[in-house]
Design brief:
Chain A is mainly alpha-helical. In chain A, 69% of the residues lie in helices and 3% in strands. In chain A, β1 and β2 form a beta hairpin. Helix content of chain B is 40%, strand content 22%. In chain B, 44% of the residues are buried. The chains are: A mainly alpha, B alpha/beta. Chains A and B meet through α4, α8 and α10 of A and α2, β6 and α3 of B.
Chain lengths: 271, 288
């Protein structure tokens, strides 16, 4: 069901990864994603993958959850790697059937693609697994607050994001309830052609929208009652401070990027 | 053969995630035709999960639900027909009202059953009469109604399917005392007029005492008690431990007894308490 999607979900905890400053996590994730695409040989890609696994282990999130999240992209990985094997014809030929050839270049690229995609997904989902949505938007707000000089209302945008993220689970739960209520009256959501199915959604979406608007109105009223006026003169309940572990993580990342560059120069590219 | 039978039902929320929770744990019960059963329990005791199994909205992880002796999850056609025969009305009408008029909203269920136009009209009129909605409400928008009226439309929407078993989830929650009384007396009338089975989920012991003939108490996904109103409310110490109460009038009578008045404390309704107190007063039963 809808509830089984784990990508983007937050799993509370107090591991090293959880405790990292969200701003630092955001920046490091970005650097790391760039690093993944810098890798050109097996030494560097191996290093990146090892670091990913290490981070996953450090986060102490059950591997089952992580595998479940990966299940959704399994076919994308399979599809792209198969394509790579058959379409890349560089390097030495290993197998020469009549209609297709398998070459070293093809297999290497396929392997690279698999490792890159897996590391990419693992690392970026680790960010949302270990950071609560509120902290994450908070971090985004601070990292981008320099945009204020261009008259971009960063605080407002961040607040919109926070509220939107906050209400995703509420809305999902509500869809579930509405679907149950309508199914109990014999609504048939599973059979019929496109038009019939689209029509069957009306009894679901009307209550959903009506409730969402009512809730938005209530929320606006509640915020106004507490004198919310945007970012102007607003202090924060949670101050963010960089700790030793944040600098440590930064140092490790810098070393890894340096190592990747070194490996690339030293061992050349296999692609 | 019982009308509705639940055998060793187990259901786990979020199976395979860190949020796993056993909502139902080996629940068995059977309901006979014409019974009025109240299902009570603390929040999170598994009441709502249980009732959603009775019309196959949730599929058990183990165990069975039998309606007239047949497993309701056995095949799709049966599941669909059971949805009409075990009518479930949820707590919040906001989750089900969607049509432009009250009439069309009540007609949603019967129309899904595939009834003809005039049969639908008859079913809607009958259901509206049960919940005391006059015909001049039919053309109003359900979103313009008051909370109590919305609730009545929602209940009518389920009654209109003429189910063998009517399940109501917290039918009085969030209503003012008057709206509450109205709903309760409507349900009572429905029971006496149709003789159909009714299952009510409730937090209010006063409502339960005045309506039900049998009480099932749920605690932590299991059935803690199952018996007549009297049998259950006599075990007030256990109920308190589960975070539940006994009816207010019974609490008053128990307190009077404690202070030495010769009252019979196994009385659970307001009317019964009035009679009991008058009896005691007549016999001159002052404090000893």
């Amino acid at each position: 069901m809808i509830k089984d999607i784990t990508i983007g979900q937050f799993f509370p905890g107090d591991s090293f990864v959880h405790k990292l400053d969200p701003r630092m996590k955001l920046v490091l994730t970005f650097i790391y994603i760039v690093a993944i695409f810098l890798c050109q040989n097996f030494f560097s890609v191996g290093l990146v993958f090892a670091l990913t696994v290490l981070c996953v282990l450090l986060s102490r999130i059950s591997p089952r959850v992580i595998l479940k999240g990966m299940k959704m992209i399994f076919f994308i990985i399979l599809f792209t790697s198969v394509l790579q094997i058959f379409y890349n014809k560089t390097g030495t030929t290993w197998l020469d059937a009549k209609y297709f050839q398998i070459t070293s270049g093809g297999v290497f690229t396929a392997l690279f693609v698999v490792i890159r995609i897996i590391s990419l997904i693992l690392f970026s989902s680790l960010l949302t697994y270990t950071t609560s949505p509120t902290l994450l938007t908070d971090a985004i707000e601070r990292l981008f607050s320099f945009l204020k000089i261009f008259k971009i209302r960063v605080h407002t945008l961040a607040m919109i994001m926070t509220i939107a993220l906050r209400f995703i689970p509420t809305l999902i739960e509500e869809i579930d309830k509405i679907m149950s209520a309508q199914k109990a009256r014999g609504a048939d959501l599973e059979s019929g052609g496109v038009i019939k199915r689209a029509k069957a959604l009306i009894p679901i979406f009307i209550p959903l929208f009506v409730n969402a608007f009512r809730r938005a109105y209530d929320l606006a009223l509640a915020m106004e009652c507490r004198c919310y006026r945007g970012s102007e003169g607003r202090t924060r309940m949670r101050q963010m401070h960089l700790a030793f572990r944040d600098y440590f993580a930064l140092a490790v990342t810098v070393c890894v990027v340096a190592a990747i560059v070194f490996f690339n120069i030293q061992f050349g590219s296999v692609l | 053969m019982s009308l509705l039978e639940v055998k060793n039902l187990t259901y786990i929320y979020g199976k395979g995630t860190p949020f796993e929770m056993r909502a139902l744990d080996g629940v068995s019960l059977s309901v006979e035709k014409g019974e009025i059963v109240a299902l009570i329990g603390h929040t999170g005791s598994g009441k709502s999960t249980l009732i959603q199994h009775l019309n196959a909205l949730l599929k058990p992880h183990s165990g069975q639900v039998l309606f007239m002796g047949k497993d309701i999850n056995a095949d799709k056609a049966l599941t669909r027909s059971v949805r009409f025969q075990v009518g479930l009305c949820f707590q919040y009408p906001e989750y089900q009202l969607f049509e432009s008029t009250v009439y069309r909203d009540i007609a949603f269920g019967p129309t899904n059953m595939g009834l003809k136009e005039d049969e639908v009209r008859a079913a809607v009129s009958e259901a509206a009469a049960f919940v005391g909605l006059k015909e001049d409400y039919f053309e109003k928008s359900p979103f313009d109604l008051s909370g109590g009226e919305k609730r009545r439309v929602a209940v009518a929407g389920v009654m209109a399917m003429r189910p063998e078993v009517l399940i109501l989830d917290e039918p009085t929650a969030g209503l003012d005392p008057n709206g509450r009384r109205v709903i309760l007396s409507l349900i009572r009338n429905y029971c006496t007029q149709t003789g159909k089975t009714v299952i009510i989920v409730s937090h209010s012991m006063d409502d339960v005492a005045s309506l039900a003939s049998r009480i099932i108490v749920m605690n932590r996904g299991k059935i803690a008690m199952d018996g007549s109103v009297e049998q259950v409310f006599l075990r007030s110490a256990e109920l308190t431990k589960m975070g539940l109460n006994i009816p207010q009038v019974t609490q008053i009578l128990l307190e009077l007894k404690k202070r030495g008045y010769a009252v019979n404390s196994s009385v659970f309704t307001l009317e019964g308490a009035r009679r009991e107190l008058l009896r005691v007063l007549k016999e001159g039963g002052g404090a000893k």
